Amino acid sequence: MTRTVDSTRELAAFLRSRREGLDPGEVGLPTRRQARRTPGLRREEVAELAGVSVDYVVRLEQGRGLRPSADVVEGLARALRLTPVERAYLFGLAGHRARGADAPDTTAAPPLAGLVADLSPLPAMLTNHRYDILAWNREMTRLLLDFGTLPPEQRNAMWLCLRHPRIRGLYVDRERVVRDGVAHLRTAWAAHPDDRALSGLIAGFLTHDEEFARLWDERDIRVNGRGHKALRHPEAGVLTVNFDLLVPLQDPNQRLLVFRPADEESRSALDRLCAR
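Above: the chain's sequence. Below: its structure in token form.
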């Protein structure tokens, strides 16, 4: 028999499975003396916790083709004590984007911050989807600059590329680097429409930076997960690095950027720089 995947039936089955797997004590309900005929919570209890009618819960669990609103999905996720991954899954089944998905992390996840340090001697840093710089290792400070000396509002890769005098003069092919950065930022803006801080950042660039405004109006959309950059370093001279931009599954709003020397001359130059 051929099986098909249907989001309405999966939504119904998912809600039933999570309701039946939840202990009443986990949601603050008193334990009843008489044995329950079915495991987990009753539909009446889920309805009360979620702020919807019992009939609505029944119809959802029977897969009658309902498309619950985002508010209802939020109430059900809260009532069923869903994990963040389960919550995002429920929103997706209902045809919505999970609330909070547009909120970027403002601090580095501790395991990722540790990974950045462990990647030495390769230069590495961690950003969010706004390209705010969250963590970096010593090698990255030697190659670019010491982000710890900057005020927090300037620890943004796009801001540095546009306005910091050292970074402005660092890239041999600066036009391409800035163009790629603007395309990346436009892609992030489209994927996170509710991120007001991101919209404000872009508005500031459009108002005060002619180069950014010109490239933004080209409406280029691109995300390069890997590539290369040639740098004209004030201490190490000209060197080329390959880069990989990785998105961790556990922390999808964070991005890990790792640089590797592209050739032996660049490796030697980077070794000398980081050994100082």
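The chain has two domains: 7-93, 110-275.
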